[in-house]
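[recover] target loaded
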């Protein structure tokens, strides 16, 4: 498989790991859009939000259990944003389900 995030998870491409367990991997974005910009990805390849189903949805629930822990560890006490782009028109550039945690400053409210 020629998936950038699968290669990062496998350790074939270096990343700055923030968190890892049996199901998910979190690392710092190489082009951060906020002072804190972490990507959280399932280790199992799911292409995007449309690929979530009854067999793999527990990993998404797990991601949302871990996200508040990561935000707290990063000191995001004033709030943070969680974003997932689904498809090219939404700006998804890597076809592996992932969630952006953005924070560390007031974020703009308008949509791009």
């Amino acid at each position: 498989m020629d998936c950038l995030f699968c290669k990062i998870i496998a350790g074939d491409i270096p990343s700055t790991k923030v968190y890892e367990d049996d199901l998910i991997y979190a690392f710092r974005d190489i082009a951060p859009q906020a002072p804190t910009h972490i990507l959280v990805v399932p280790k199992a390849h799911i292409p995007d939000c449309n690929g979530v189903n009854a067999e793999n949805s527990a990993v998404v629930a797990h991601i949302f259990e871990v996200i508040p822990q990561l935000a707290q560890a990063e000191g995001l006490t004033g709030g943070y944003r969680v974003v997932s782009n689904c498809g090219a028109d939404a700006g998804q550039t890597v076809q592996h389900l992932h969630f952006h945690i953005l924070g560390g400053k007031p974020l703009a409210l308008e949509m791009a």
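[recover] notes: The first helix runs from residue 4 to 10.
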